[in-house]
């Protein structure tokens, strides 16, 4: 075995506040009316902006972009700054209010930037709120040197980066217009999706999975309908359009073959339960859902008495788990067991929780699994623990604040790790005495313990094409 040094690590950022979610899929975003394309600035020398075009608003002072805290869709959610990651809560367009004023509309919620309670005070909170076209939601856009300053119609004060913050999560307020750089914003047009070009692509060993494509599309808002369609014969696309509370707590809804289960916007949630894919189940897609909250207070700290997983797969095949948020489950957030194969797990947020992602429960070595662009944080063990997997390809994952261990290759597993980002992780990656692990291009920041490689494992590109992002881009969404 040899110790594998990490790539040169950049300085740790001044704050480690959770990065915002990127769960809402382009084709399920709330429909919005297209505004008439009109070019406008309020000085003649600047380039025009387009009414109806989506922009990121980047602070001249900090380099961070304006967004809505935790990508909330709710009224009153405050405006903050964050790393640009392409998520819809970081995209805004201008809606003409007349008289040279515009509302600034968030793409993920269709709500507009609003000075709370119509305040005229310095430091007043800027939030999102339903569009009433009131004067505290209207802004004059003034240009200087290619940067915009937004002045509120009701208060006459400017959109301001409070106390000159450079920290992720720094709040946005209004303040007397001074022309300072913390009140100046660069308008960065986004493309059709505003997200990484490959964010909706199915890559890896799950390639070819189609789920319920070509079948019947249904929308569910209750447990009975969800169970009926998830385990029905035939192909179904099942849209989850509500937070469904599962009873009894911890129940895992059985999912049959040829199913797509997908959340509508941000509303699709499975609360107090999860999903189970049993032997022989194949061709399943689970996307854009929040699965949460089966923790049992009497089962701490081991989480052993109640086997309440977010998604459990036993001898399933051709599965794609993508763009979900899974947290606070009493057992595993995801368990892939008993030779489940041809599995891709991508672009999910896993955590907080004790056991993140367990793989194995078999003496065979046949499974093929791809795990990429996931954010695993606030967890202890199984991140993942990968036992007897023929080919395990892990790339562009972000592990953060992991107390137990990170990527663990066990048994006869051949594991390849590429361009991942380990932040405050104990034992970031290592194999046991019989497994192989090859690592390249990853960045480690404030990590402790083992970072060990062994053997040549395999070459993923001989199995499929894939898009490998720089490790330095991973914390901001790849």
Describe the structure.
By secondary structure, this protein is mostly beta strands. It folds into 2 domains: 164 residues, Trefoil (Acidic Fibroblast Growth Factor, subunit A) (Trefoil), CATH 2.80.10.50; 261 residues, Single-stranded right-handed beta-helix, Pectin lyase-like (Pectate Lyase C-like, 3 Solenoid), CATH 2.160.20. Helices cover 2% and strands 39% of the residues. The chain is built from 1 helix and 43 strands. A 10-stranded parallel beta sheet has the order 16-17-20-23-26-29-32-35-38-41, with helices on one face. Strand 7 and strand 8 form a beta hairpin. The longest helix has 8 residues. The N terminus is likely disordered.
Task: Give the overall shape.
Answer: globular
Name the CATH superfamily classification of the largest domain: Single-stranded right-handed beta-helix, Pectin lyase-like
Alpha-carbon distance between the two ends: 30 Å
**Architecture of the largest domain, CATH level 2?**
3 Solenoid
Gyration radius (Cα, Å) is 23 Å
Number of strands: 43
- Class from helix and strand fractions: mainly beta
What count of helical segments does DSSP give?
1
Q: Biggest β-sheet: count, sense, barrel? A: 10 strands, parallel
Helix content class: under 10%
Task: Determine the strand fraction and express it as a percent band.
Answer: 35-45%
CATH level-1 class of the largest domain: Mainly Beta
Strand order of the largest sheet: 16-17-20-23-26-29-32-35-38-41
Number of domains: 2
The overall pLDDT, averaged over residues, is: 87
CATH structural fold name of the largest domain: Pectate Lyase C-like
Oligomer: single chain
User: Which parts are unreliable, with pLDDT below 50 for 5 consecutive residues or more?
Assistant: 1-48
């Amino acid at each position: 075995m040899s110790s594998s040094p990490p790539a040169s690590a950049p300085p740790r950022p001044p704050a480690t506040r959770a990065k915002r979610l990127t769960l809402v899929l382009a084709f399920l975003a709330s429909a919005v009316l297209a505004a008439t394309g009109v070019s406008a600035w309020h000085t003649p020398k600047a380039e025009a902006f387009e009414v109806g075009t989506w922009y990121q608003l980047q602070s001249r002072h900090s380099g961070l972009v304006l967004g809505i805290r935790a990508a909330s869709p709710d009224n009153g959610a405050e405006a903050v700054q964050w790393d640009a990651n392409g998520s819809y809560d970081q995209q805004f367009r201008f809606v003409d209010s007349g008289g040279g004023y515009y509302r600034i509309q968030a793409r993920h919620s269709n709500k507009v930037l609003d000075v709370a309670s119509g305040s005229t005070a310095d430091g007043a909170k800027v939030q999102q709120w339903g569009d009433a076209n009131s004067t505290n939601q209207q802004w004059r856009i003034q240009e200087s040197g290619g940067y915009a300053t937004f002045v509120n119609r009701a208060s006459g004060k400017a959109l301001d980066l409070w106390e000159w913050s450079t920290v992720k999560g720094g709040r946005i307020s209004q303040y007397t217009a001074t022309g300072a750089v913390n009140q100046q914003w660069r308008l960065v047009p986004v493309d059709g999706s505003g997200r990484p070009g490959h964010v909706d692509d199915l890559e890896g060993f799950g390639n070819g999975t189609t789920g319920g494509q070509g079948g019947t599309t249904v929308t569910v808002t209750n447990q009975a309908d969800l169970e009926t369609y998830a385990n029905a014969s035939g192909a179904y696309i099942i849209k989850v359009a509500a937070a469904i509370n599962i009873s009894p707590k911890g129940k895992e809804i059985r999912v049959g073959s040829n199913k797509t289960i997908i959340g509508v916007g941000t509303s699709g949630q499975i609360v107090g339960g999860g999903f189970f894919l049993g032997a022989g189940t194949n061709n399943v897609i689970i996307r854009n859902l929040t699965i949460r909250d089966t923790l049992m207070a009497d089962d701490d700290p081991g989480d052993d008495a109640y086997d309440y997983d977010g998604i459990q797969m036993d001898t399933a095949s051709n599965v794609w788990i993508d763009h979900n948020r899974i947290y606070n489950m009493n057992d595993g957030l995801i368990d892939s067991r008993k030779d489940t194969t041809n599995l891709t797990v991508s672009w999910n947020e896993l955590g907080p929780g004790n056991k993140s992602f367990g793989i194995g429960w078999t003496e065979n070595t046949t499974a093929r699994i791809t795990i990429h662009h996931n954010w695993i944080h606030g967890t202890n063990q199984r991140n993942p623990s990968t036992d007897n997997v023929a080919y395990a390809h892990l790339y562009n994952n972000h592990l953060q604040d992991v107390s137990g261990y990170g990527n663990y290759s066990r048994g006869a597993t051949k594991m390849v790790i590429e361009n991942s980002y380990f932040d405050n992780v104990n034992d970031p990656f290592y194999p046991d005495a019989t497994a192989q692990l090859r690592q390249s291009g990853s960045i480690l920041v404030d990590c402790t313990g083992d970072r060990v490689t062994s053997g040549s494992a395999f070459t993923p590109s001989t199995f499929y094409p894939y898009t490998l992002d720089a490790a330095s881009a991973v914390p901001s969404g790849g």
